[in-house]
Amino acid sequence: MASRDSDPGTVRRISVVGNLIGAVLAFCYFRFIDYAAADVPRVGIAEIVYSVVVFGLMVVLLQSWGNRWARPLTRWSGPEGVPASTVALVRRRALLFPYAVAMLTCVGWVLAGVLWGVVWPLLDGRFSAYRAVRQVFGITVIAGSVTTAFVFFAFESRWRRRLPVFFPDGHLSAVPGTLRLPVRVRLLAIFLMISIVPLTLLGVVSYTRALALLGADSSTATQIVDGMRLITLFILAVGVAAAVGLSVFAADSVAAPLLRLETAMGAVGRGNLDSRCPVVANDEIGAVAEGFNRMLQGLKDRELVKETFGKYVTPEVRDEILAGRVSGEGELKEVTILFADLRDFTPWVEATEPRQVVRDLNQYFTEMERAIRAHRGLVLQFIGDEIEAVFGAPLPHRDHADMAVRAAVEMRQRLRQWNARPEQAGKPPLRHGIGIHTGTVLAGNIGSAERLSYALVGDPVNLASRIQGLTKDLHADILISDATRRRLDAAVEVEELPAVTVKGRSVEVNLYRVV
């Protein structure tokens, strides 16, 4: 949708108010301060016609040029489907718009000074170089400068509310070919204007009245001094009003963006990372707002990494790794390893529709991982229908054997609950075997230069996998080794089984079935 503040009507209203202020200031200047520069015997019909025609032509020409320059802004409805060159043009003009409006105002007052201070006296036969300089000074320098400053700051304050329409993502400083008004220059310009203009007027008044006092009688001199007192009070009143008005605009141009930045920072402090600070200028404050938004995006990216990483490890492990308190370079750890594998998986896959297999596997893995996470375990990988998990790494836990056995018991319970639904539908239930072993392994980040995974290396890993493979032969769903049983602190009901020979080991292994 086109910006309402880019409507020429908005510019016209601000221009009318500003130029009216300038006209009143010019009238008061020539009426009370430098009245000799505008002293004419009469105002004739020719001067009235000239003024109306010239003023009308100036308004038409400047208004036409301004509307044509601002047309891309009034027609803006978004960057979708718009060529990149057009988008760049619109955004550049959006930043230059307040300067363009001020420039038109300044050009108008320069023309006014020339047309009424030079051209008309030439046409009227009353031209005087000294008087022309004084008239151009009063019209262009005094009234024109105040009007231009008022129009610029008033329109810029209004226009800043609409800049996010053209820059929803900020990045105002990246637009080439634009003017940049630093805060220091802005404040310095306003300070000079509210100090130099009143002082200049007082100087002119003092000079003109001093000339009038030369050769004046006492009565006339008294009137001149009394009039000078009133004029001084008038200049002070107008100067104070102008200083307050321009100071308000200057303060708003600095305080308002900082207030929005403070509000956005408060929202971030409360944990809301979706808030953004609108960038409404390409000065230092705008750069600060852009930097804040970049920092906020970095925080959001970091939270996304943490959230995504949390899907692979438990939140506690994630936070420890991101905080740098967990070493991935490799270290020897005593841990408990758990392997879980589905029984009769291949026949079940052959007899089930592929999409259903994927859905059932995902649901099964979800339930099993929840049980493992609930007891502070870490799922290292899913291999086909097999789960490999570790307890006691990367964060050390003294009771890692108890945690692994409790997790296995909960996995048994969750599988029973999950099987209730397919059994009601007449489908065969899923069965699994779980093997658990405790030992010392090498734990660390293992992989290629582009991809790493936290993994365990050592004979205990192989033995835990072999124990899981024996669950089918021994008709048990949870088997633990003697090393794990000796590390159990809690009372766990187990049944000792005959010692068995495991592939790759010459010594028989004592196993226990968790009852």
Word description of this protein:
- The protein is α+β, with helices and mostly antiparallel strands and 515 residues long.
- The protein has three domains: 1-173, no CATH class; 180-300, no CATH class; 327-514, Nucleotide cyclase, GGDEF domain (Alpha-Beta Plaits), CATH 3.30.70.1230.
- The chain contains 14 helices and eight strands.
- It has helices at 8-33, 45-74, 84-124, 129-159, 163-166, 183-213, 218-269, 284-309, 315-322, 345-350, 354-374, 400-424, 459-473, 482-487, and strands at 331-342, 378-383, 386-391, 432-447, 452-457, 478-481, 494-496, 511-514.
- Strands 1, 2, 3, 4, 5, 6, 7 and 8 form an eight-stranded mixed sheet that branches.
- Helix 4 (129-159) packs antiparallel against helix 6 (183-213), helix 7 runs parallel beside helix 8 (284-309) and helix 11 packs antiparallel against helix 12.
- It starts with 7 loop residues before the first helix and ends with a strand.
- Mean pLDDT is 83; it is low at 1-6.
Secondary structure layout plus pairing:
Layout: H1 8-33, H2 45-74, H3 84-124, H4 129-159, H5 163-166, H6 183-213, H7 218-269, H8 284-309, H9 315-322, E1 331-342, H10 345-350, H11 354-374, E2 378-383, E3 386-391, H12 400-424, E4 432-447, E5 452-457, H13 459-473, E6 478-481, H14 482-487, E7 494-496, E8 511-514
Helix pairs in contact: 1-4, 2-3, 3-4, 4-6, 4-7, 6-7, 7-8, 11-12
